[in-house]
Amino acid sequence: MVFSLRVTKRKKADQISIQGAFNLWDILTAKYTQVDLIQVLHRFVHDLDLRIILESYLKDLQRDIRFIEKQMNKYGIPAPDGPRKGVNAANTKESVSDESIGQALLILTQENMEMLLKAIRTSATNDPIRKAIMKVLAQRADYVDKIIKYLKLKGWLNSPPAYPHIPPENSEVIDMGEAFHLWDHLTFRYDSIEQTQLFYKFAHDGDFKTILKIGLMDGLSWQTDLLEKECFYFGLPLPKTPSVSTSRVENLQLNADDGMYRQLLLGIQGSLIIHMQAFKQATTNDRIRGIFRRLLFDELKKLNLLLKYGKTKGWLFPAPQL
């Protein structure tokens, strides 16, 4: 499905964040790839109605591309290589380039990871099935990593705009998207620490308090240290750290353990999407992509732990069964 970007009036003084700049670049890159693919598919379609659908799709893509290109020019954001002007299908083998196939394969595999992650997030009832899907997801993550490295080696992967404020003594490069994700992950950890500390103070169940302390807070600690180190290394501004302790609680009966548990579960399910996006979009720096992969699968372990615990306590809302 093509989404249309509506034009909005902006003042010349408006600024754009590094993530906003990367988003424009990333969307434009994807739309260029789609244009190439649609032009190839159009050559091989026989059904008239399907041909009309493809032509309409292509017009939508071209309209969106013009808008995004205008915004990138406005903010001085380097653009990726554009799509081909057309496809000559006189020779079938030359109609589809290896470069286009490789880029399409990357997108398809990345989207397959999204589908698998959704299945894991919503598979609360059957533990063996969830475990099996997690194994497949890990294999797909390895495959995405290999494709990215291969496409870069061949020069077939567009390079996102580089983060411009890396300290001069640092020879390692990250792009704007990777820089934002490092900063965003750190701010997310700070918020998670505050919330987990608050839940720990409110919790009554001894096992739940143990999970909050050992299963979550200890994990947040090493992750925060890792992300702070990377932000310092790449010269990123750090957000304010969370309070070392929560305020005194007068009434510990305000929140029930099962309600806090479900809020915590929702938070972890949401964080998985953040980790997945970071892993998918980290194409410049292989080491940083590896960090996001580690964080993603560490969060999946937490999800697995919470789901099993919630079932033993009867705190999960059971989905309809066959």
Description:
The protein has 322 residues and is an all-alpha fold. It has 3 domains: 17-80; 97-158; 163-313, Up-down Bundle (Ferritin). The chain contains 9 helices and no strands. The protein has helices at residues 18-44, 48-75, 92-95, 98-122, 127-154, 176-202, 206-233, 257-281, 286-313. α1 (18-44) runs antiparallel to α2 and α6 runs antiparallel to α8. The two termini are 31 Å apart.
Defining traits:
single chain, 322 residues, mainly alpha, Ferritin, 3 domains
Give the beta-strand count: 0
| Proportion of residues in helical segments | 55-70%
Question: Topology as H/E string?
Answer: HHHHHHHHH
Computed over alpha carbons, the radius of gyration is 23 Å
Strand percentage: under 5%
Label the structural class: mainly alpha
What's the end-to-end separation, in Å?
A: 31 Å
Helices and strands, with pairings:
Elements: H1 18-44, H2 48-75, H3 92-95, H4 98-122, H5 127-154, H6 176-202, H7 206-233, H8 257-281, H9 286-313
In short:
The chain is mainly α and 322 residues long. The chain contains nine helices and no strands.
